[in-house]
Design goal:
Blueprint: E1 7-13, H1 31-38, E2 40-43, E3 46-47, H2 52-61, H3 65-68, H4 98-103, E4 108-114, E5 132-136, E6 148-151, E7 154-156, E8 159-161, E9 164-165, H5 175-190, E10 197-202, H6 228-242, H7 266-299, E11 306-312, H8 326-332, H9 353-359, H10 372-375, E12 379-382, E13 391-393, E14 397-398, H11 402-409, E15 442-446, E16 449-454, E17 457-461, E18 472-475, H12 491-507
Parallel strand pairs: 1-10, 1-11, 2-13, 3-14, 4-5, 4-10
Antiparallel strand pairs: 2-12, 5-8, 6-7, 8-9, 11-12, 15-16, 16-17, 17-18
Helix pairs in contact: 5-7, 6-9
Length: about 525
């Protein structure tokens, strides 16, 4: 007999930036992630999608989001995209999920957390290959058991357990703790099958509303009184020491509209620092619960044969009270967001744009952007069989690569549907193994915001009012902060990337939206 096929634990956090955790230069104590990084492989050039559901569609399918059904988010699909293939607003039934592929090949499959790939029963995790699943269907909402939804159009959370709508959610529920416990329950209930497992922990932390249980609300009290300018500088220094970036590389300065910390009045500093304390506490609690899950695997004798993959689904969110769309902003303002109540039940605290800039150190842009700050996120792969653990890879890797990687690790060949992504399993044995050739490119699009990357070169194009709807060109090796537009200086490179974009758009049926970005009223909620 050959070696046992590996278990796979896939952990996804929501809206966490590149620099928040210790292995990526952050000051937020994350000892369990640091341990995984020391035993695994740190990916410093890993790209997700600009927003949640497109990223999760790519993750679950290994396909580009425009093929998988989330060419645009269901909440924001434009009039000219409605009804088109790839713009269904849910993960297409014709595209198999990781769970379906693994389930058909001798794996047990469990998940807990955010789904965001379809609200109906036939689109739920249970119908898409998971043996056991507790999921919620929206992009966000309260982390507590009060079931408060994310915006004016979705006032109440929509949960499913094993396909059944509106299961009982305990009053003392908190998402990170509850989802971790549910994942352990699923592993317990499927243990008697004797099959290897695929476990998907889709945490919604630290997505807004920023909330914490009472016992953790002050875990980071006072830690951020020095302000975002200082903390950003400290993170950048650590990233350089870790070898992520060269000393001469250009990084993004404080964005327009974000005042210097010293220019804030005392009340502004107190509120802003409190927002970051809660955000950091959510990440700290995430790491604590990850440790609980890893200890469970260890006590069950499962840890040694488990490959752990940890990522964030997109960059940090820049929707504070001044920049969030009305459906979110007006919803948040209905709650008690006083300094004393921030983060507690009955509050609905959004993030702070200055701290989101820190979260994305050293990049430009936020969630929803095709600049690096919106799409370049932390990623760690850890496995007992990894060669020379504690290494770093700067190769370009995408979220669509994880499905074929997991299939590769499980010894399951791809079927006729193929994958957009590429397996990065060879990196676990040889960090110099090439994932992509110099001819490969990576395209990204949401809301008409576009980028195309090939090697060190990246072109970005933004529609009005964000930009002038013309391509900008950046050298990411020397300018990871995307500060110097080389479009005029290097027309040859820009022409090459424009051609690559046209190829990407044609292959993936990209339809640029007509009209402005807006959050739509929810489709009729399922009542079955």
């Amino acid at each position: 007999m050959g070696p046992a096929r590996p278990n796979v634990l896939l952990v996804v956090v929501d809206d966490m930036g590149f620099s928040d955790i210790e292995p990526f230069g952050g000051e937020i104590k994350t000892p369990n992630l640091s341990r995984l990084a020391s035993r695994g492989l740190v990916l410093t050039n890993f790209h997700a999608a600009p927003t949640c559901s497109p990223a999760r569609a790519m993750l679950m399918s290994g396909m580009d989001n425009h093929i998988a059904g989330l060419g645009n988010m269901a909440e924001t699909v434009a009039d000219n995209q409605m009804g088109l293939p790839g713009y269904e607003g849910h993960l297409r039934r014709q595209i198999p999920t990781i769970a379906e592929r693994l389930s058909q090949n001798g794996y047990r499959t469990v998940m807990a957390g955010k789904w965001h790939l379809g609200m109906k029963r036939e689109l739920s995790p249970k119908a898409r290959g998971f043996d056991h699943a507790l999921s919620f269907s929206f992009g966000g909402g309260s982390h507590f058991g009060d079931l408060i939804g994310p915006d004016l159009h979705r006032p109440r959370m929509l949960y499913r357990k094993n396909g059944v709508l509106n299961p009982t959610i305990p009053k003392d529920f908190y998402s990170t703790v509850g989802f971790t416990s549910e994942l352990i329950e699923g592993l317990e209930q499927t243990a008697d099958t004797g099959k290897p497992f695929f476990a998907y922990l889709a945490l919604t932390a630290p997505h807004w509303p920023l909330q914490l249980p009472e016992e953790h609300i002050d875990d980071f009290a006072g830690r951020y009184d020095k302000g975002y300018d200082v903390v950003r500088s400290e993170r950048l220094k650590r990233q350089r020491e870790l070898g992520f970036f060269d000393e001469t590389a250009a990084f993004a300065p404080r964005p327009p509209g974000v005042p210097a910390w010293d220019d804030l009045d005392e009340e502004g500093k107190q509120r802003s620092a409190r927002v970051m304390e809660i955000y950091a506490g959510m990440i700290g609690l995430m790491d604590l619960e990850l440790g609980r899950l890893l200890r469970y695997l260890d006590t069950q004798g499962l840890a040694e044969n488990t490959t752990v993959i940890f990522i964030s689904d997109n960059g940090p969110d820049g929707w504070d009270t001044e920049h969030a769309p009305p459906a979110v902003r007006d919803h948040a303002e209905k709650f008690d967001n006083s300094l004393e109540n921030m983060g507690k039940p009955g509050s609905f605290t959004l993030f702070d744009r200055g701290w989101a800039w820190v979260s994305g150190t050293p990049f430009r842009g936020y969630k929803g952007s095709t600049f690096e700050g919106g799409i370049r996120v932390p990623a760690i792969l850890s496995s007992a069989g990894i060669a020379a653990p504690g290494r770093m890879s700067k190769q370009l890797v995408t979220i669509a690569d994880l499905a074929p990687t997991i299939m590769d690790l499980a010894g399951i060949p791809g079927d006729e549907n193929g994958f957009t992504g590429k397996s990065i399993a060879p990196l676990l044995h040889d960090v110099s193994a090439l994932v992509r050739s110099d001819e490969d490119h990576m395209g990204v699009e949401i809301w008409g915001r576009r980028s195309i990357t090939r090697g060190k070169w990246k072109a970005v194009r933004l529609p009005p009012p964000l930009g002038q709807d013309q391509w900008m060109l950046f050298d990411l090796d020397n300018d990871p902060g995307e500060q110097t537009d080389l479009a005029t200086e290097r027309p040859d490179v820009l022409a090459m990337l424009e051609s690559a974009w046209e190829q990407y758009a044609e292959v993936n049926n990209v339809v640029l939206p007509e009209g402005p970005f807006r959050i739509l009223p929810a489709e009729p909620l399922p009542t079955e």
